[in-house]
């Protein structure tokens, strides 16, 4: 007999099976990349997002007949902080809408589920500035519409979910009819397929046949959290770093926490303040020279657990000397050595919705070389490799006395999560901030961060690190974040940039048939500029199609390239652009043999 209602315990069991089912099909989803490039990561991003959501829900330690609204809220908060890539952000918005609709409900029926899915649809569409049909958005919209129609006929939750799964599968199958690039590549939408697999796994659990829950746990090959690595002003200054204080604060019986008020107070007594959680429990992170004051305040608003205090000064002094020497010598000193991991407490999860994200960042923290005083302007940039991060950091050297600067590791197949970007913003001592995503798949997460903090944050929508360098060269410390964002965006778009990689399968791209193993030269929006069996010929062909003369060409060779090959390519570029200064740089980026900029 179909199950009529669902409580929080069953909701969590269904979500666990959903995550496991996506894990079992993650390679399938990744392989549906429209472009035959070796960095398909839609499935990995969605899986990392829902795993963070599952960890947050598990941290509640729910018992039998748990409150559905409370579990859904934890899932949504975990997904929001753990969201990676555009597919992950949209998935987190769907879960957020579901949680909002289930708020206050101990149990929910079929109509409640249909309403929740519809709320998730609306929230997901609202998160995308220019929604495109034939994507995950179409799938959730058509699935939720089918859920409403089913619920109006039959209010049993299992039957509504069954209708949702069937509609999602049909919707995915027709995505190529709605989006030309899918039809051309002969694939269905990867994000939509990932969503279908989540619904499918949930239905299996409701029917008593859950997908193996071990699939839901991260393995060695899963996407891992990446730590933000600061490169900030004051490298040569005798700065005092003080102590890092971290704890969980729990509301006393009958009372509620106000995370925003907690954060506001801690900002008055410390720096790098990060407060995440809800009215029941919150995670607190503060840097200052009086940890006793931070702990005393926590005790004034609730009860504390998992208290840790780290002295940053001893560690920072050695790092400061090493970093200064590295910059003076021009060596690869763009990154500070990692701090020792924080002492691990028994168990792998904390009791707040942000547990996994916060715990991961705490255990991979780096020494923060912060300026002596808070800056008017800060910049957070994303880089996929040390070589490109160093290039961005050296570009920022000119304004290090005026602007706080931080690098977050991440890029293709390793997109930083919303939580990691938010933590980087929180830990950057500046009144206003700019975020340079340097990847189209990070832009949406960056925009989410801008809506989650009370500080002014503007996004410079850079599509690769070459655009990021061009944008940084245009930064003016005398202007505010909004003025800089406009000028830096224009500067990023003023250069020509291409990425060079090899096709991983046969496909049709931009109307041309591509064979596995051929070299493709792609523009920042993945448009195919040139194709050849020889990498150098492909690049030179692309340059021939670019109109106008060039003064400066920079060739960043990646992890799969070599200096010798890059120098050979540079000489050939100089032959077709004799007036240009061609510079070879080590980028170290994964998947792309070359990243080339020309202006």
SSE topology sketch:
Layout: E1 6-7, H1 8-24, H2 26-30, H3 42-58, H4 68-82, H5 85-102, E2 107-108, H6 110-127, H7 136-153, H8 157-173, H9 175-178, H10 180-185, H11 190-206, E3 228-230, E4 243-250, H12 259-267, E5 271-277, E6 281-288, H13 291-301, E7 303-311, H14 313-329, H15 355-363, E8 375-383, H16 386-395, E9 403-409, H17 418-427, E10 430-436, H18 440-450, E11 456-459, H19 465-473, H20 481-494, E12 496-502, E13 507-509, E14 512-514, E15 519-522, E16 528-532, H21 535-545, E17 552-557, H22 563-576, E18 581-586, E19 594-598
Parallel strand pairs: 8-9, 8-10, 10-11, 17-18
Antiparallel strand pairs: 1-2, 3-9, 4-6, 4-7, 5-6, 12-15, 12-19, 13-14, 15-16, 17-19
Helix pairs in contact: 1-3, 1-4, 1-11, 3-4, 3-5, 4-5, 5-6, 5-18, 6-7, 6-8, 7-8, 7-11, 8-11, 16-19, 17-18, 19-20, 21-22
Strand content: 15-25%
Query: Under CATH, the topology of the largest domain is which?
Result: Serine Threonine Protein Phosphatase 5, Tetratricopeptide repeat
Please state how the strands of the largest beta sheet are arranged side by side. Answer: 16-15-12-19-17-18
Radius of gyration, taken over Cα atoms and rounded to an integer in Å = 25 Å
């Amino acid at each position: 007999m179909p199950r009529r209602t669902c409580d929080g315990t069953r909701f969590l069991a269904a979500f666990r099976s959903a995550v496991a089912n996506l894990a079992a099909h993650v390679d399938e989803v990744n392989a549906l990349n429209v472009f035959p490039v070796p960095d398909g990561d839609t499935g990995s991003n969605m899986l990392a997002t829902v795993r963070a959501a599952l960890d947050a829900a598990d941290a509640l330690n729910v018992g039998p007949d748990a409150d559905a609204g409370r579990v859904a809220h934890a899932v949504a908060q975990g997904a929001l902080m753990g969201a990676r890539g555009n597919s992950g952000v949209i998935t987190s918005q769907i879960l957020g809408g579901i949680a909002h609709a289930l708020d206050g409900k101990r149990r929910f029926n079929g109509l409640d589920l249909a309403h929740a899915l519809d709320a998730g649809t609306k929230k997901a569409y609202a998160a995308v500035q220019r929604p495109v049909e034939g994507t995950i958005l179409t799938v959730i919209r058509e699935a939720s519409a089918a859920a409403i129609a089913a619920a109006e006929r039959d209010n049993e939750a299992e039957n509504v979910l069954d209708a949702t799964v069937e509609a999602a599968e049909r919707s995915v199958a027709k995505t190529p009819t709605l989006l030309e690039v899918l039809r051309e590549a002969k694939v269905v939408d990867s994000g939509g397929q990932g969503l279908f697999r989540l619904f499918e796994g949930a239905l299996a659990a409701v029917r008593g046949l859950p997908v193996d829950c071990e699939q839901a746990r991260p393995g060695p090959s899963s996407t891992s959290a990446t730590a933000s690595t600061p490169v900030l002003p004051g490298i040569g200054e005798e700065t005092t770093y003080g102590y890092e204080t971290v704890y969980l604060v729990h509301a006393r019986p009958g009372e509620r926490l106000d995370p925003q008020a907690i954060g506001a107070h801690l900002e008055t007594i410390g720096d790098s303040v990060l407060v995440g959680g809800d009215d029941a429990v919150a995670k607190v992170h503060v840097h200052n020279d009086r940890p006793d004051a931070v702990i005393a305040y926590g005790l004034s608003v609730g009860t504390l657990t998992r208290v840790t205090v780290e002295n940053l000064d001893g560690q920072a002094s050695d790092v400061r000397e090493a970093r200064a020497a590295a910059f003076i010598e021009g060596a690869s000193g763009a990154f500070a050595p990692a701090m020792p991991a924080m002492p691990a407490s028994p168990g792998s999860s904390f009791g707040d919705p942000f547990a996994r994200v916060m715990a991961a960042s705490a255990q991979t923290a780096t020494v923060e070389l912060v300026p002596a005083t808070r800056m008017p302007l800060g910049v957070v940039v994303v880089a996929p490799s040390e070589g490109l991060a160093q290039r961005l950091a050296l570009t920022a050297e000119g304004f290090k006395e005026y602007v706080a600067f931080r690098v977050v590791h991440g890029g293709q197949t390793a997109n930083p999560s919303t939580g990691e970007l938010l933590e980087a913003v929180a830990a950057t001592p500046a009144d206003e901030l700019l975020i340079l995503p340097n990847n189209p798949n990070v832009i949406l997460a960056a925009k989410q961060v801008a809506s989650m903090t009370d500080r002014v944050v503007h996004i410079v929508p850079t599509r690769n690190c070459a655009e990021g360098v061009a944008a940084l060269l245009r930064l003016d410390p005398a202007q505010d974040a909004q003025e800089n964002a406009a000028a830096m965006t224009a500067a990023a778009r003023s250069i020509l940039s291409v990425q060079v990689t090899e096709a991983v399968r046969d496909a049709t791209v931009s109307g041309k048939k591509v064979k596995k193993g051929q070299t493709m030269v792609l523009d920042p929006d993945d448009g195919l500029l040139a194709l050849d069996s020889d990498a150098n010929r492909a690049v030179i062909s692309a340059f021939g199609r670019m109109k106008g003369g060039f003064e400066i060409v920079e060739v960043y060779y990646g992890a799969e390239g070599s200096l010798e090959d890059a120098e050979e390519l540079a000489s050939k570029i100089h032959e077709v652009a004799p007036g240009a200064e061609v510079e070879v740089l080590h980028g170290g980026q994964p998947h792309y043999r070359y990243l080339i900029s020309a202006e």
